[in-house]
Description:
The protein has helices at residues 24-30, 51-67, 78-86, and strands at 2-7, 10-17, 38-49, 70-74. The protein has a four-stranded mixed beta sheet with strand order 1-2-3-4, with helices on one face. The relative contact order is 0.19. The protein is α/β, with parallel strands linked by helices. The chain has one domain (2-92): Transcription Regulator spoIIAA, CATH 3.30.750. The protein starts with a strand and ends in a 12-residue tail after the last helix.
Amino acid sequence: MIDVQQIEQKAIFSGALTRATITRAFDKKYRDLVKGERIILDLAKVDQIDTAGLAWILLLIELASKTTCHISLVNLPEDLVKLAKLSAVDTLLPTENT
């Protein structure tokens, strides 16, 4: 299960961001995160992530670039960092220190 709590320009993800949790309804609902001027994705409470989770984050980054939304990621789980490096996409992740 994945939960997203949005507080102004910050979206706090908690739970599993995996193939099982990224449903069409989830995708449709949370693509809107990048419709504003800025969004920070806080991933500190993500306890499980797989390649589908990484791909969905990359999709949000791509959508943000098309809508001129400034997107940044904070508190990346170690599993996400490892997956991104193994997939050679770690340089595409707009990280920010908190």
